[in-house]
Amino acid sequence: MADESKLAAVRNMLEAAETSINSAKQILNELIGDKPIKSDYVPTAKNLKMSDNIIEGVFDGQNMIGPDKRAYPVPANYASKSKLVQGDILKLTIQPDGTFLYKQIGPTERKTLIGILGFDDNQYKVVAGNKTYKVLLASVTYFHAEVGDKVTIVVPAKQDSEWAAIENILPKGSAEK
Fold this sequence. Notes:
The structure is a single chain. By secondary structure, this protein is of the alpha+beta class. The protein folds into two domains: 2-106, no CATH class; 110-169, CATH 2.40.50.140. It has helices at residues 2-32, 42-45, 76-81, 137-142, and strands at 54-59, 63-65, 71-73, 89-94, 100-106, 110-120, 123-128, 131-134, 150-156, 165-169. The chain has a five-stranded antiparallel β-sheet. The protein is globular, with a radius of gyration of 17 Å.
């Protein structure tokens, strides 16, 4: 029981640290005026809303691409628990105290696949059919997944994607349909 509470405490500390790092990166980018990024989602994002404290953008698998062609870091724990996929439309509200609040406002059409979790080049990946998708570490830890587990993933239905969201882990010995 004590080990479980310690694991939960460590998980919470890591998620809090990740959120703090992402916020610090965003503030740093604003201060030093980082260069606009190149992304397939820039054309979609350019038509979305932006004001002083509300920014709409497109999720690219790790970040939200805003109409200003900048990447806004999305906390991995939010992305994994919300099962965000590439192409989802998000709204970022920047609170007066600098807190970033994300909300999914336009989910893209999805399809579910079954694959096997692996780890290669310092990145968790799922092989589903003849394609390999990257998955967030936060998803792997959230579901307590292990390399070799059979998992269901969610990907965009009408576009190719590099990233997938883990939907769940299939029980050992389950049959693939």
